[in-house]
Known about the structure:
Largest sheet of chain B: 6 strands, mixed
Shape of chain A: globular
Shape of chain B: globular
Number of strands of chain A: 11
Largest sheet of chain A: 7 strands, mixed
Order of helices and strands of chain A: EEEEEEEEEEE
Oligomer: heterodimer
Radius of gyration of chain A: 14 Å
Largest interface: A-B, 19 and 20 residues
Helix content of chain A: under 10%
Strand content of chain B: over 45%
Distance between the termini of chain B: 40 Å
Order of helices and strands of chain B: EEEEEEEEEEE
Strand content of chain A: over 45%
Amino acid sequence: GAVVSQHPSWVICKSGTSVKIECRSLDFQATTMFWYRQFPKQSLMLMATSNEGSKATYEQGVEKDKFLINHASLTLSTLTVTSAHPEDSSFYICSARDHRKGDGQPQHFGDGTRLSIL
Amino acid sequence: GQNIDQPTEMTATEGAIVQINCTYQTSGFNGLFWYQQHAGEAPTFLSYNVLDGLEEKGRFSSFLSRSKGYSYLLLKELQMKDSASYLCAVLDSNYQLIWGAGTKLIIKP
Lengths: 118, 109
């Protein structure tokens, strides 16, 4: 069964709207979660690393004021795309790793959120 | 810099065997992962290698040679549902995952 739940799976909204995406680890505590973006026919691009109780670490070129990340608990991280525009339309995927099992564990992915900005 | 190379696309026939190669140059090594990603879906975990050698799991096997910075994913008895992208990813010295661009595998009847 799924170990990481991501919601919503599909969002269509008008330009200028802010959209919040939730990522939950279902049966383990995730001190670290990862947010990726994937454009059609392209590879996964890491946007940021979400750290529970502290600020997220953003990859170069990712605007932290536009992509707000909150990791308020050990099982929940949220990504808010603020004032979304058509160029933000993409497939957003979160992932988490169960550190209790050691560092060499796979990242488990949520099902992804397909964001379409009109 | 850190780099992972894998072929962009491969084509194989249903029932056959295909090998997808991955070479890497990273700052440190703490394991290599293979993921499968169907179009429009999130990646799913296939295998993890941290020691040299072959790991077999059903129709899928993964091989690692750390001295050569090389891995391959071997898929046997190919089925149409195996058509997907296969992603190679390396855990570096900081336990950050470095992703390859993925290999799109096309299975023909």
